[in-house]
Design a protein that fits this description.
alpha/beta, binds guanosine-5'-triphosphate, globular, binds sulfopyruvate, 647 residues, disordered N terminus, binds manganese (II) ion, 18 helices
Length: 647
């Protein structure tokens, strides 16, 4: 048993009397290498507080693993797990880079499954709004606690037979920050452990600061075994037929079965930081949001901006952008999730609860996101990207980065040819899992325990028609309406098919942990918490022209839009009132050096489109949120309709 861990646990538990100190003493004599009779093959059980230990013991009884491994987060542990994963064929080394790995999943397990994700509360109305008669709700799924217990029992009883149960203590947010929260994930996937080690802070650093008063979110995960026992791809065990991702906010508990991929299995991310997180945030008076956080410096003055875009709509890219305009610097605090609260001075402050990036690979290139490209080629796990004959990776968008003579194997392991293959080389939701600390523009304050001050909030999505490049909210109620009425084209990040425009309020539709109507009320209440609300904007990089091409070059050029936002934060008189909000006055958006921009098309406001848009939003509110809708939202619809009528 490692010396250090033992010393640390003695320090942190010095105040714990009785039962606990007895454990410590006994461990010196080499006892307690077992939990519930199961051997602990790695790690020190004494680092677990009695509460954690009793949670682990409960789940051992349920899952019946062969061995227990308590994660310490060390390099030694990590390299032994990677060796094991290689032996099992789950990952292979990518010798072109330093400590990089490629995982191929079962093709039936490649994205989040929203239809199998549930919030479990006593009353249905706590979890989701009540849709009107005959309408299927689309703001989350509810399950009763008794159905949850039944589903868990069916799936988890004995599910870890012949497998190792890994116990991962992890912190969402800098360890010890007053804004951070702790979780304990139990999983039977070494791939998940290796990924959680990148995405969160795990192991000794976390157990060191825990005592028996420390609250933690309980996260149980198994990749599962199909009911007939047949594992289609032993290197990627999963049970897609019976996959279920369950959340019990009242008990701070997550239970996920059947999938090893992304948000389904890295439980710190969407399950904890957003679904459970939003319920904790509601109780404690703060916000857990699907937002990137970036710092932008212009003429020596630095501001921080948070931005909510739906999955696969550009958060990672904006968070790491390389501004094309001279004199600007963008730095990255986080690319996916923000935990935000007003401090005692009424200043909104945000932390990134994560420790890594789980970013979309396709579309990432030295021209679109050179910062991501200089982040991901060391210490990274790639999943479902294509592989090159020289031991590297390939995906759509890397055409200019890989020599034509190099042979490519697609994400399914089949030979793939640039000219003749009709399917993509990489899965559209293939991803890199990479340490945030490696990002060359990681913000110096990214781990600041008090968080960074937020001056502006952006909403955005993929809107090929009608929605201008940028507009600003008129006031806070309108800002909340903007978030609530967010819509975007479906992407590959979940199971939705085709290019339909979906409602995705606050880019949180798949991630609400409680009734969306109450969530809106919570956002509206921010107005009473401070006199210093951030300004709110809606951006759309994805408007298309008649030729079907994007009207806006996007990526690094988006700094021009951020520049206009900064002017607004400085109260510059550069905005023009329109019925839908404020847009840039002529010439106030810096287009210097850009050629062939159809600025009129980018900002054209079509009365007919906006009438339909507001009608669609109003219908959505009525049908989906019904009596849970705050009256302010209905009022915003009325105001907008009137203004649009006068267009
Ligand atoms: P999640 O990790 O799923 O939450 O996604 P995300 O919001 O971080 O999206 P990401 O930045 O990974 O971008 C997803 C896709 O959108 C990639 O293929 C990008 O190349 C593309 N994209 C991002 N920004 C822009 C932009 O400004 N313009 C255009 N045209 N495409 C963009
Ligand atoms: C998203 O879908 O918004 C993601 C990817 O960030 S996942 O971790 O799979 O949720
Ligand atoms: Mn995301």
């Amino acid at each position: 048993m490692p010396d250090i861990a033992e010393k640390d646990s003695e320090i942190s538990y010095a105040s714990e009397a009785g039962r606990f100190s007895k454990h410590l003493k006994q461990s010196h004599f080499g006892l307690f290498h077992h939990l519930r009779g199961i051997s602990v093959v790695h790690g020190d059980i004494n680092v677990l507080t009695p509460k954690v230990r009793s949670y682990v013991e409960d789940k051992i009884d349920l899952c019946q693993p062969e061995k227990i491994h308590i994660c310490d987060g060390t390099d030694y542990e990590n390299s032994s797990l990677l060796t094991l994963l290689q032996k099992e064929g789950t990952i292979k080394a990518l010798p072109k880079y330093e400590n990089c790995w490629l995982a191929r999943t079962n093709p039936a397990d490649t994205a989040r499954v929203e239809s199998k994700t549930f919030i479990c509360t006593e009353k249905k109305s706590e979890a989701i709004p009540t849709p009107s008669e005959g309408v299927k709700g689309s703001l989350g799924n509810w399950m009763s606690p008794s159905d949850m217990n039944k589903a868990v029992k069916e799936r988890f009883t004995g599910c870890m037979k012949n497998r190792t149960m890994y116990v991962i203590p992890f912190s969402m947010g800098p360890v010890g920050s007053p804004l951070s929260k702790i979780g304990i994930q139990l999983t039977d996937s070494a791939y998940v452990v290796a990924s959680m080690r990148i995405m969160t802070r795990i192991g000794q650093a976390v157990t060191k600061i825990m005592n028996n008063e420390t609250e933690f979110v309980k996260c149980l995960h198994s990749v599962g075994t199909p009911a007939d026992g047949k594992m289609e791809m032993p290197s990627w065990p999963c049970d897609p037929e019976r996959t279920l991702i369950l959340h019990k906010p009242q008990a701070n508990e997550i239970v996920s079965y059947g999938s090893g991929y992304g948000g389904n299995s890295l439980l710190g991310k969407k399950c904890f930081a957003l679904r459970i997180g939003s319920t904790i945030a509601k109780r404690e008076g703060w916000l857990a949001e699907h937002m990137l956080i970036l710092g932008i410096t212009k003429n020596g003055k630095k501001r921080y901006i948070a931005a909510a875009f739906p999955s696969a709509c550009g958060k990672t890219n904006l968070a790491m952008m390389t501004p094309t305009l001279p004199g600007y610097k963008v730095e990255c605090v986080g690319d996916d999730i923000a935990w935000m609260r007003f401090d005692e001075n009424g200043q909104l402050r945000a932390i990134n609860p994560e420790h890594g990036f789980f970013g979309v690979a396709p579309g990432t290139s030295n021209s679109s996101n050179p910062i991501a490209m200089s982040t991901v080629f060391k210490n990274t796990i790639f999943t479902n990207v294509a592989e090159t004959s020289d031991g590297g990776v390939y995906w759509e968008g890397m055409e200019n980065e890989v020599d034509e003579s190099v042979k490519i194997t697609d994400w399914l392991g089949k030979p793939w040819d640039r000219k003749t293959s009709k399917t993509p080389a990489a899965h559209p939701n293939s991803r890199f899992c990479t340490p945030a600390s490696q990002c060359p523009i990681i913000d110096p304050q990214w781990e600041s325990p008090e968080g960074v001050p937020i001056s502006a909030i952006l909403f955005g999505g993929r809107r090929p028609v009608g929605v201008p490049l940028i507009h600003e909210a008129k006031n806070w109620k309108h800002a909340v309406f903007m978030g609530a009425s967010l819509r975007s084209e479906a992407t590959a990040a979940a199971e939705h098919k085709g290019k339909v425009i979906m409602h995705d309020p606050f880019a949180m539709r798949p991630f609400f942990g409680y009734n969306f109507g109450q969530y809106l009320q919570h956002w509206l209440s921010m107005e009473t918490r401070t006199s210093n609300l951030p300004k709110v904007f809606l951006v759309n990089w994805f408007r298309k022209g008649g030729d079907g091409k994007f009207l806006w070059p996007g990526f690094g050029e988006n700094c021009r839009v951020l520049d206009w936002i900064l002017k607004r934060l400085d109260n510059e008189d550069c905005a023009l009132k329109t019925p839908i909000g404020l847009i840039p006055k002529k010439e106030s958006l810096n287009l210097e050096g850009l050629k062939d921009i159809d600025i009129d098309a980018l900002f054209k406001l079509d009365a007919e489109f906006w009438k339909q848009e507001i009608n669609a939003v109003e219908k959505y509110f009525e049908e989906q949120v019904g009596k849970d809708l705050p009256s302010e939202m209905k009022e915003q619809c009325e105001i907008l309709k009137k203004e649009i009528d006068s267009m």
